[in-house]
Design brief:
By secondary structure, the protein is an all-alpha fold. It contains 11 helices and no strands.
Length: about 325
């Protein structure tokens, strides 16, 4: 972000060091478009690459009577019964949905973090930086979920009902045609908020804390560390934050899969969530946690590594930092 007059220079610290060949530091819309693009790419690539894991996880959540012997056995069953291509079901909506969501999530996080800091002051924000991280992440995720929800609903319908449509375009069109915008695309908006907002708040807050701790244990200033070292730090901090976020958001993830499978179900979203939660119980809400730990831990580590590297390549290294 730009070194605005409202923020002292000490509050703006490049995490990856400056690009010596760069003659002009991006600011304003130019800077945030780079944050957004970096977030879009890191989310689309990681979620897209892990589509097979997500297919297995979703099947385990939706049909635990059939897929009840673990992730590897569920994978074998899907391949045996439907062929290897079944593991790529929903790749289209996954890639596009998380490309858009990643732009709003990461770009929005940087924007809202700066906005909150300017509102309360650098000193107050630094003393309460965890709250700043949580608030910025929560607001950013809310808007990101608005663009994600229709594509996530399409993905879940394609995975849970393989004969529903042949791909993203036909599945999206059929869902809209048969169930409309609210019931078809946004029946899962409540649970997706319950899943994604706690997930993203945990993800960014734990990541920021992990990065702060790691850098503080290294005697070399982070601006002098090599690119590979910074990438490794992002991978490690991202893995830690991903595992924590996966556990926090698992119950809502299960409810999201269940509610999107209920074609034309009656009742409000809240009442349906309550009924489903009672039916599943504490144990049922954590079905597929093992697969999700693998998926979320891996993709979150990859996201922060890719995000940091793309920002560096684009010269978008002047984000506001509150770590001491």
């Amino acid at each position: 972000m730009s070194t605005d007059k409202s923020l002292p220079k000490s509050a703006v610290e490049p995490r990856f060091g400056s690009l010596k060949t760069q003659t002009q530091v991006p600011t304003g819309v130019d800077l945030y478009s780079r944050f957004a693009f970096s977030g879009a790419v890191c989310c689309a690539v990681t979620h897209g690459a892990l589509t097979p894991v997500d297919v297995v996880k979703t099947r385990m959540q939706l049909d635990s009577a059939v897929y009840n012997k673990g992730m590897l056995d569920a994978t074998r069953q899907i391949i045996r019964n439907e062929g290897p291509a079944a593991l790529a079901t929903g790749f289209g909506p996954t890639f596009l949905g998380y490309f858009l969501q990643g732009a709003f999530k990461f770009g929005g996080y940087e924007l809202w973090k700066k906005t909150i800091i300017e509102a309360v002051g650098v000193e107050t924000a630094t003393a309460n930086r965890t709250i700043v991280y949580l608030g910025a992440a929560g607001i950013a995720e809310f808007f990101a979920d608005i663009v994600l929800c229709p594509l996530e609903a399409t993905r879940i319908r394609l995975v849970s009902q393989p004969t529903f449509a042949s791909g993203l375009a036909s599945g999206f069109a059929r869902l809209y045609r048969e169930e409309g915008i609210i019931r078809g695309f946004y029946s899962g908006f409540g649970p997706i908020l319950f899943k994604q907002i706690p997930y993203t708040m945990t993800k960014f807050a734990v990541y920021e804390k992990a990065v702060e701790v790691i850098y503080n244990t290294i005697p070399t200033p982070k601006s002098e560390l090599s690119v590979s070292t910074n990438t490794a730090i992002n991978l490690g901090a991202g893995l830690i934050s991903g595992l924590a976020a996966a556990v926090v958001s698992q119950p809502a993830d299960t409810l999201l899969s269940k509610i999107n499978k209920q074609k034309g179900a009656e009742g409000s979203i809240a009442s349906r969530l309550i009924v489903l939660a009672k039916e599943l119980g504490p144990r049922g809400l954590f079905l597929g946690l093992g697969a999700r730990l693998v998926m979320v831990g891996t993709l979150t580590a990859g996201q922060f590594a890719i995000y940091g590297d793309i920002k560096r390549l684009l010269g978008a290294t002047n984000a506001v930092e509150l770590a001491r």
